[in-house]
Amino acid sequence: MFLSRLSAALESGTGCLAVKTNTKRHRPLAAISLGPVMFTLAKQVSADSVTITLLLHTCTLEGSQLVMTTEFKPVQIPMSQRIRERIVASNTRYHANDNIAQFIEDGELDELLSEVEGKLRDVLKSLVIDTDSDHNTQDTGRRVAKMFINEVFKGRYVPMPPVTEFPNASHLNELMIIGPITVRSACSHHLCPIMGKVWIGVMPNEHSNLIGLSKYARIADWIMSRPQIQEEAVVQLADTLQEKMQPDGLAVVMEADHFCMHWRGVKDVDAKMINSVMHGSFLKDPNLRREFLSLIKR
Predict the structure, then answer these.
(1) pTM (2 decimals)?
(2) How much is the pLDDT for 21?
(3) Containing H/E element for 157?
């Protein structure tokens, strides 16, 4: 665990260590290895600790002499690594379309955003873009980081929106259809946009909870605002609504454009994907399923 945390800290640029010679080329002899640089853990750290304190013995060549210096050095652990450790310790999955809000503490999203910004700046530099003098890309790392964390992938980092629930006082037991709800996501394979619409069918019973109309759109947006594949997104949406409402039947249909096909690859701008999930009476009763599918206008 310590080595993985130290490696993450060093890769983040907050604890980079190297030994250099006094020759013309100043090539590094070692960077955290079993060679001239040695380190030991000098302070006990917990899984949520912000820093590791290292006792560093640094050897350098000055001319023909070997010089050793000793210092205590705090190395900051990247926010992503601290969040990841909490998730791993709880034995919880953290795939691209999973919500991890329960493992993020107040104020930590800002620090995570800054870390992502730094990584994106490095991506732009690796693409050989002069972000120092190019006025168009000087703040692109920050803009894209904010877009990922606060907008297009926010469904990973924030809890489910509050849902107003009402008892089924009138004992409604007829088909309800909500839609089309506009949804936006990104494919987890290429991070290209997915733009589409969702229709939701509900067959309540006298014990079902009814939710406010706008909450269907809010829950759909929360589910879709993550890297997704459409097949899994509709299952997540259906399962979430089924758990909240407990109806006799629930149906979800999604139709979407995938820009991983439009923008790249085969570049087919007309292809769409349509899929559905049926629960309960929609799965068992072909007449109800047929009624729902005939009433939604795609």
Answers:
(1) 0.79
(2) 32
(3) helix 154-157
